[in-house]
């Protein structure tokens, strides 16, 4: 991968990597200060040093590494600054959906909200705020890049020319790679568990209506990782920024009123409207999630078995079945095919496969589909899945026949990065950029 492309991938990962830093990176204590200003945006020394440490740990060497990383950081901040000028806005619903998914994932990985707060040494509402700001910046940067280079394509001739420029002794050697697909079905919560959650919340609502403090009960009972510790307060939101069921119930209330129990994709809520300010409204809520200890895995297995039989009888393709039936949002739009983060292809080196996938697919022949297997989603939900081995490629040196998809992706990435770099050169003088004295020697024109 060209170094500029590596930096681009690294910066995307690091935008959210502040929440998953390695132990080694956490051992470094820095006195933070500002190393660059780009319009109203700043770049901190800790941000620069953290990403420099990641680049070094990945084996990338350069006599000018910090300057190269700083240039990429300045480019990202310029994209943000120009997004503000050009009114390029990311949909708030998209940000909130990403936020909830990542928070749930973090909590599931570390074990509890309390452990997450202990790990970051800050309350959940601050963790939520920091992550939301990071996500907003990342998604805005990506949207600006799509505006600049999203329509750029490469022709087969350009792919061949790109490949021809690679010295023969520098062609990568690929280990055994596989293409693996999955269809996931999340086990459904039983009616009894839903009813128990609703009844618990109804009892809490009665206590509120009898005069008990909503905020105190939210701190005690709410299962919302972001707002529970803050007395259930969500803060101000505009219309269409919260799930429809929640918003509809909230907007029926007068300030101080408490809603009936309502159900959303997150569970059951009671809502109190605190304030309306023009098109914005501020609420607090108590969330109770149905217990998931008794989900119906048997019914889920039977459903996946029937889907598997349809595929094996050629009544439906695996890709169509994944699109129609899978509950895994990250793969269903890709024909069910699993990819590595940041990878442009569906080919996965076997040494990078999740062990739970490797040990299953290692027993399959190309074209085989596994029996339904237990699975836990990233946000901790119990599920079942079937795995499909689409292809298996033996070790080989890169060539146009076997690796066209990878080579085309690399050629496209180079062409788009060049377009974004050209945009940076044309627009860097439209926003005030100031570097700390020690970095004045970094030539942003290179």
From TrEMBL:
**Database matches in SUPFAM superfamilies:** FKBP-like (SSF54534), Triger factor/SurA peptide-binding domain-like (SSF109998)
- Source domain of life is Bacteria
InterPro entries cross-referenced by the UniProt entry: OMP_Chaperone_SurA (IPR050280), PPIase_dom_sf (IPR046357), PPIase_PpiC (IPR000297), PPIase_PpiC_CS (IPR023058), Trigger_fact/SurA_dom_sf (IPR027304)
Matching Pfam families: Rotamase
Q: Does the keyword Signal apply?
A: yes
Q: Which UniProt keywords apply?
A: Isomerase, Rotamase, Signal
> What range(s) does the PpiC domain occupy?
175-275, 278-388
For this UniProt entry, the molecular function terms from Gene Ontology, in alphabetical order, are: peptidyl-prolyl cis-trans isomerase activity
Which PROSITE patterns would you find in this protein's record? PPIC_PPIASE_1, PPIC_PPIASE_2
Keyword Signal appears in the UniProt entry: yes
Q: Where is the signal peptide?
A: 1-25
| PANTHER family, sorted | CHAPERONE SURA
What name does UniProt use for this protein? Peptidylprolyl isomerase
Name the species this protein comes from. Answer: Rufibacter radiotolerans
């Amino acid at each position: 991968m060209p170094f500029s492309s590596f930096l681009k991938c690294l910066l995307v990962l690091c935008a959210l990597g502040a929440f998953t830093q390695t132990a080694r990176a956490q051992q470094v204590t820095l006195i933070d200060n500002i190393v660059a200003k780009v319009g109203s945006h700043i770049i901190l020394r800790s941000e620069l040093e953290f990403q420099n440490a990641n680049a070094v740990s990945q084996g990338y060497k350069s006599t000018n590494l910090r300057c190269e990383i700083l240039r990429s950081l300045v480019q990202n901040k310029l994209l943000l600054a120009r997004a503000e000028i050009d009114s390029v806005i990311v949909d708030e619903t998209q940000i909130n959906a990403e936020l909830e998914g990542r928070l749930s994932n973090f909590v599931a990985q570390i074990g509890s909200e309390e452990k997450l707060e202990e790990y970051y040494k800050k309350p959940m509402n601050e963790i939520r705020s920091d992550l939301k700001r990071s996500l907003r910046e990342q998604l805005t940067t990506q949207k600006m890049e799509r505006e600049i280079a999203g329509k750029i394509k490469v022709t087969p001739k350009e792919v061949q020319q790109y490949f021809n420029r690679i010295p023969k002794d520098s062609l990568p050697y690929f280990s055994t790679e596989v293409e693996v697909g999955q269809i996931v079905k999340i086990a459904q919560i039983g009616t009894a568990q839903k009813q128990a959650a609703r009844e618990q919340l109804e009892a809490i609502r009665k206590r509120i209506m009898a005069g008990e403090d909503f905020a105190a009960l939210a701190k005690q009972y709410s299962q919302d990782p972001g707002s529970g510790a803050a007395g259930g307060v969500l803060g101000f939101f505009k219309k269409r920024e919260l799930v429809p069921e929640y918003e509809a119930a909230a907007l029926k209330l007068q300030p101080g009123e408490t809603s009936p129990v309502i159900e959303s994709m997150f569970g059951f809520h009671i809502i109190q409207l605190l304030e309306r300010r023009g098109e914005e409204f501020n609420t607090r809520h108590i969330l109770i999630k149905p217990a998931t200890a008794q989900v119906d895995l048997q019914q889920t297995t039977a459903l996946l078995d029937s889907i598997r039989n349809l595929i094996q009888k050629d009544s439906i393709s695996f890709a169509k079945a994944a699109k129609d039936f899978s509950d895994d949002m990250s793969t269903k739009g890709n024909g069910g095919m699993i990819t590595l983060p940041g990878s442009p292809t569906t080919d996965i080196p076997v040494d990078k496969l999740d062990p739970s996938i490797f040990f299953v697919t290692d027993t399959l022949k190309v074209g085989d589909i596994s029996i339904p297997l237990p699975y836990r989603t990233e946000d901790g939900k119990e599920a079942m899945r079937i795995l499909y081995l689409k292809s298996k490629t033996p070790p080989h040196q890169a060539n146009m026949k076997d690796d066209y998809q990878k080579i085309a992706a690399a050629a496209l990435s180079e062409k788009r990065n060049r377009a974004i770099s050209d945009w940076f050169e044309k627009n860097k003088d439209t926003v005030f950029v100031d570097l700390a004295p020690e970095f004045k020697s970094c030539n942003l024109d290179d």
